[in-house]
Amino acid sequence: MRSLGFLVSRRWALFALSVVLIAWATWWLGEWQFHRLEDRKASNAIVRHNEALDPAPVADVLAPGRAVADSQEWRQVTATGTYATDDTVVVRYRTRDGESGVDVVVPLVTDDGPALLVDRGWLATDNRGEDAADVPPPPAGEVTITGWVRVDGTGDSTRVTDHSTRSISSSRIGDAIDRQVYGGFVDLESEDPAPDTALAGAELPELDNGPHFFYGLQWWFFGVLAVFGFFYLMYDEWRRARTGQRARSIPPSTGTVDPETNDAAGESRKAATLPNSSGSP
Description:
Layout: H1 10-52, E1 56-57, H2 58-61, E2 76-83, E3 89-91, E4 101-110, E5 115-124, E6 142-150, E7 164-165, H3 170-177, E8 185-192, H4 212-248
Parallel strand pairs: 1-2, 3-7, 5-8
Antiparallel strand pairs: 2-4, 2-6, 3-4, 4-5, 6-8
Helix pairs in contact: 1-4
C-alpha cells in the first residue's frame, strides 16, 4: 500500500477535488438539458393542441390588461374591425435567412371596443429604422382577420420610441398610442379582404425536440471521461511507483554502456570483416 501514498499529496488531493467538481458540473448540465427537453415536449404539445382547435373569437381568449397564459399561445383567434394605420408600429431588427427587415404591427380597432395588436408580417428592408409611412398599407375599411395568439415581450427591448420598438409588448404599445388594447398580440394568418401588397407571413414554431437529448448525453459523457481519466492516471502513477521500487533492488551497474575491450583499433574480434585501405570491405 506504500505505493498509494502519493494520493495524500497536495497535488493529487487538488486533482481529485477538481475531478469531483467537474463530474458534478457535467451531471448538473446534463440534467438541465434533459429538463429543457421535457419543457420543449410540453410546449410542443400545447402548440399542437392549440393549432388543432377551430379559431375562436378574440374576446373569448384575450382581454384588455390581461397577460396571455402559456396554455393559450398559438391559439387561433378571429377578429373584425378597422385598422388604425396612423398608429402603426415598426418592430426593428427582424432578420430572416440572414436578410434584414422589420415586422409591421397595426392595431385593429374591434367592434367590441378594444384594439387588437396585429403583427401583419415581415418586410425586407436595408433600413433597420424603417418609417411606418414607408410600409405597405393594410386593407381599408372593415377587415376580418385570423391569427395566432402570442405572448408579450419583456424587458427594455419593448420600449416604444417614435412608433418603433424592438419587441412587441401590448402594454407598452397601448400606452404609446393611447389606446385600450387586448393583452398579447396576434401573428396574422389571413385578412379578408386581402391587401394590395401582402407582407411575409409569420414563422410558425418548429415542433421538434431540439438537440437537448444529445447535449445531455454529451455532458454526462464528459463527466464519465473525467472520472475515467482520474483513475487511469492514478493507476499509471501507482504502476510507476511500483516500477521504481523494483529498480532500486537491482545491483548498481558499472556506469558504462559499451563493453570494455583491449582490442586495438581495426582488430576487433567481433568485426565480420576488416576495412582495407581503400575503405571497401
